[in-house]
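User: structure tokens for this one?
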Amino acid sequence: MQPTEIKTAQSPGFIEKVWATGGILSLIVTVLLIFKTLFGVLLLSLAGVLMAVYFHGFAGLLNKKLHLPDKVSLILSLLINIILLTGFFWLVGARLDQQFAEISKTLPETIGHAKEWLGQSPAGSKLLEYLYASGDSGKTFSVARQFFSSSFGILSDLYIIVLLFPLKNWTYYAAI
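Assistant:
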């Protein structure tokens, strides 16, 4: 007998190793797909927990300062925050609408000036030719939309981290 032909019952063959590797790989892919799918739900639930902590902290502050029952102070904290947010958006909304109307009017002119300026240099002319040659402006707009939506998503995440975490901690320390 040659040493290559000896098989023991304890060592798996090539086919068993391939099946084990395939099973492990499919398990990893399945777990990653589930994680990708449920990541948004996880973030929303954590945001809900963060909001609940904020409202309960503010309700605790109202409870301590005004000597109100727990349920009444929680409802009052919700109402105060809704009134503050409504007032903020009411005051800022008119200015935001005015600025949006201004940018809608001036954006085509600004794009025309940018094209003019780029056309004056050889590198700018090549860039303009490349942009015109691509021909698919829908793709360009979708890339720009994705960039700006992710940028604003990052800004909203920073808003939550920078504003809501200190407010949560402030209401906690103020309640003590």
